[in-house]
Amino acid sequence: MMFDGLLNLPWWGKLLVLLVLVQITIAGVTLYLHRCQAHRALELHPIVSHFFRFWLWLTTGMITREWAAIHRKHHAKCETAEDPHSPQVLGINRVLFAGVFLYVKESHVAETIQRYGHGTPDDWLERHIYTPNHKKGIVLMLIANVLLFGAVPGLLMWGVQMAWIPFWAAGVINGIGHFWGYRKFQTGDASTNIVPVALWIGGEELHNNHHAFPTSAKFSVQWYEFDLGWLYIRTLSALGLARAKKTVPVVRLAPAPHAVDAGTLQAIATNRYEVLAKYAKSMKQAWNEEVAKLREKQLFADNATARRLRLCITRGTARTPAEREAVARALASSPRLATLYAMREELAKTWERSTLSTDQLVQQLRDWCDRAETSGIEALADFSQRLRRYAPA
Predict the structure, then answer these.
(1) Are residues 259 and 313 in the same domain?
(2) Beta strands of 204-360 (E only): which ranges?
(3) Does one domain contain both 211 and 265?
(4) How crowded is residue 242: how many other Cβ atoms within 10 Å of its Cβ?
(5) Which of 137, 139, 145, 385 could make a disulfide contact with 154, Cβ separation 3.0–4.6 Å?
(6) Close Cβ partners of 115 (under 8 Å, ≥ 6 residues apart)
(7) Which pLDDT tens digit goes with each residue over 324-338?
(8) pTM, to two decimals
């Protein structure tokens, strides 16, 4: 008679247990590795922190320092040749189906681990158990599965556990999360929110929100978005086992436009990606009017080309030589479009000029608003009036 495991569960019981086990692993990745270790957005009680470290040692074999370092480098070098796993650079198929191999490859780059792996656990357990024996944990998991659930079911369950994070996290989040979905914030990368109700991968599906505010412990922003990881955090917080250190800032608008001051500058810089998203949305009608004129000049071959060019201009995402050439040609053919583009680029640099004093940045923002309101472009003037209403929270 075939050994059916110490628990002797029916097939549906084993399936239910498997789903629970992989969700615990996902919780470990998103809460411990991602929000707590990589971004310091979350504090976990030592008991919870070590439970996740131990569990991930059993179910993934990942080393905390390596994971945090590779993820931090991804944020620092996003969508460039140095990004460890950008589908915009490497192609969606390579990241989606071979993301785990990209992770392993980067984990062998000593400079990455040394530069970006600071502040992660370096205690006796890490130095003597988890790091040098990181592959032994998954062997123990295999033995436990076989003993508890039987030889064949245990092996199959272990296989799913081993493949879950490499595919869903290293593949889907790193791949689809920079390739397809919707964007709430106009970040400088290609990050997207895959779905608004983020249940399957612990909230990581809200990837654009995370790239806009990487130090936020909460990934959901809109009322219709749900971050399962945040529910876990709220539950642990109620039990005194976790504390969110930072969340997404709330946009605060004054009742009426006011003179630009340091408070306005601070509020705009804090909500910079929301500002750029509002700019793109506000300029949509003006863009459509200019496109109609350019189509008459036969500058665009089809609507798809016009749509791609609109994204390049309104989001500042022209990356390839062909895209940059198309943008330059469109701007040269439309002074009004050139103004909208130049004003966007100038606004985006307001919070990047770290060498200027606050007074200088405030004066530049004032000049920007004055020129926007006298540009003769109604949408630009209206946006400037809204910009003057930003107030610090």
Answers:
(1) yes
(2) 226-227, 242-244, 252-253
(3) no
(4) 22
(5) 145
(6) 69, 73
(7) 787 787 788 888 888
(8) 0.86
